[in-house]
Structures are given as structure tokens and as C-alpha cells.
Records
---
Amino acid sequence: MYRAITRQIEVTVEPNFLPERSSAENRQYFWSYTIVITNTGAETVQLRTRHWIITDASGRKQEVRGEGVVGEQPVLAPGERFEYTSGVPLATASGFMTGSYQMESESGERFEIDVPTFSLDSPDSRRVLN
């Protein structure tokens, strides 16, 4: 599990390789990832936008920006959490993702929170130890 905390908002990520949706012969690899956003602060916040940078093992980068997550812009009161699962395809057997969410406080202040960088590894990926 991967974890980041920004302004008392915790984001955890758990990636999961999906062999049933992947094909090494066709250079198609697919992962799901479950994200939990927990508001440990004292004020209510709303997730407005997302920004992802997805990098495969060949160094190819893809940027994704959009409103909310999985069609929602969740509001998190103090102590509340929001969990969702999404997915990502790659043309290589490994890669990584990093990103951020733009949040908005009750007072209208917008600020970025970090999503921890997380690794996408399949059983087909070759591990190199330095």
C-alpha cells in the first residue's frame, strides 16, 4: 500500500494486476487500483479535479486530467472517507502512476493534495536490483 498526507488529507493506494484482462502476447497489461481518501482535518473539503501522470516501462508518459473521480466530486466532512476503484492499461509489463487532486475547502479555497507515486508491476515484469 502507498500513502501520502497533504493538509491532513490522507490518500492511500493499493494497485492490483489483473491477469484475466491482460495479454503478454498482445502487449496489453491491466491493473486496477483502489484509492481511499480520508479527511483527518477539521474542515469539510470537496474533491474537484484529478491529474494523473502514467509512465510505462519504456518511459512513455500519458497525462490525464478531469473533473472528480469515477464520475463523482465527493464531499468529505472531518473524519469521513471516500473509496473508489479504477483501472489503467499499459503496453508494458510495468510502470508507475503519480498525481494529485484539487480540493476545495468550505471557504472556497482551492488547493492540491498529493496522490502517492505507486508502482504497477505484473508477474511478467523483469525486476532489476541495483
Note: Strands lie at 2-6, 9-17, 29-39, 45-56, 61-67, 75-76, 81-90, 94-105, 110-121.
---
Amino acid sequence: MTDSTHSGGTTADEPREPRRTSVTKRGGGAAASRGRTTIADGVVEKIAGLAARDVVGVHAMGSGLSRTFGAVRDRVPGGGGGKASVTRGVKAEVGEVQTALDLEIVVDYGVSIADVAGDVRENVIAAVERMTGLEVVEVNIAVSDVKLPDEEEDEPEQRLQ
């Protein structure tokens, strides 16, 4: 028996091997792996604050003291009232892929606090995870007050000057 090697073309009886084309990928992989995205604590706090305020039964965010200081800050020109009021009562700790949130809320009198807290938790988790891609590992909710129907607002209406 004789071993022979065949170089060159193929005969009609031999199958052709597919041609291999060298493709050079530019950038080294998927677009998602070509850099790093960091999300600031304040971004997550804003998202969570807005999501919590959307829940029926949440009267306000933050403790009475922080709301009072916030009302004063809102009235001072250049006091930064817009950002502060959105994040009032929200504290976020953001890692590379996970986040944890602490919320302080005031609920309306007559609502189920357990139901409101559950709804806030669901709404906040859904909003933060959808918008940031971070996994929300916990949402701690502290109910600091109940707004009674006959109580005056902590933040009086603005007067025209």
C-alpha cells in the first residue's frame, strides 16, 4: 500500500473544501463591551424619587425637617430647589451592577401603609432597573409621617410679589 499526498487541484471524485475567508473584526467585540458606563448615585436617586411620588397614597418624600429646609431652599434664588425636591427622602448606593435604596415617605391618612410601601417598592424597582440596567437588591422604606386631612401643608403656597 502506498501513501500519497495530493497537492494542487481536486479531481472530480474528491469533494471541494469550502474556501475560508479571513475576516478582521474591528473594535474587538460587541458594542456593549467596548467601554464602561457608570451611573451616579444622584441619577438613581432622581429616578427612584419620581417613581415613588407616582404612587397613590404617597403625600411627600423626606422627613418633616428635610421638607421644611427644602421649602426654604426652594424659595432662595439659586438655592437649587429643583434637584433637591426630586431627591428629597431618597438615598442610593450604586455599585457596578447593583444598587440599594433607602426611601423616607409621608403617606396620606386612610391608606394602607403596607400596600403603599409595596406599591412604592415595585414602582421604584421597575423604573430603576428599566432605565439603568442595574439590579435593585433592596428598597428600604421608612414611613416618617401620616398626612391628616385637616393638617396644613408644610410648604405654604408661594405668594405673588
Note: The chain is about 30% helix and 20% strand.
